[in-house]
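ingest -> validate -> predict -> emit
validate: passed (alphabet ok, no gaps, 223 aa)
predict: started
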Amino acid sequence: MSLRARLFAMTYDRLMAKAEEAQLRDLRQGLLAAAAGDVIEIGAGTGANLPCYGPGVTSLTLTEPEPPMVRRLEQRASEQAPLAKVLRAPAEDLPFEDGSFDVAVSTLVLCGVSDQPRALRQLRRVLRPGGQLLFIEHVRSGDPGLAHRQDRMNWLNQLVMRCDCNRPTLTSIQEAGFTVADVEHLAMYKAPSFVRPLVVGRATAPAGAARQGTPQLIRQDLP
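emit:
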């Protein structure tokens, strides 16, 4: 376990506090209030979405690859969603059978996965036909000038926030076979200009999602 991972887990909530207060908390609540059925959230981090799930959720599975984050997630889940299942697993290798979930949630996660296309294929696989992907992601700007600035400043974003600020994530969602049902293009409040472009939306998994087999669950005991 790296010192950097520990420090990031310790400081993440403080780093995001102003943005959450100004905007993100409301966006999370608006997006997730309608989530229903069997729900999986990838990269659940410290559990910022937990208060946003409504009574329509019959089961909630939270995945997170980083052990320091998992510890914080388990603590928050025990307080706010004691019936939720917390697993240490990366988005690129979800240890679930095909068609296990009605809804998948990704909020500020697809910017940081190591293999974005693979993660999206995994989400397609574990969703039931017609299942919903709910997402909030900061993305590459459509403005060439700002996009160039994102490219130049991406090293800093990787250093501080451990993610890429210049990924064309909305295009990646569509290329993975999802149909984007609705999307809102926003600017993230209380954030540097190069991470402000934000998309909030809902996409639908195809009726015949590709089957890739179920990966083995990675080790969950934390050092």
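The domain at 3-204 is CATH 3.40.50.150 (Rossmann fold).
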